[in-house]
Please model this.
Amino acid sequence: MLEIRQAVRTTAGQVLCSDELSKDETEAAAGTLCANPAPGNLHVVRCGSCRDTRTLFRDENDGPFRLTALGWRCETCSTAAASQEVRF
Ligand SMILES: [Zn+2]
Model:
């Protein structure tokens, strides 16, 4: 399960961070994601104060971000973090 998560995260990161991927490469990456149904969807979590960003599954905590009933919270800044679901 962890390996799948990592593969999905890596692939999503490549798609999100590179404007240079060709259409074919983007489609291949999306295919990888479809072929590996992840446990929930990935979210890009971003703190508006310290600009820290993580790509997290819906049940993960990482970096300064802690998941609450209302979404992620940046513990460094004590503010709610913005999160956006990753879609392809
Ligand atoms: Zn912060």
Remarks:
- The first helix runs from residue 2 to 17.
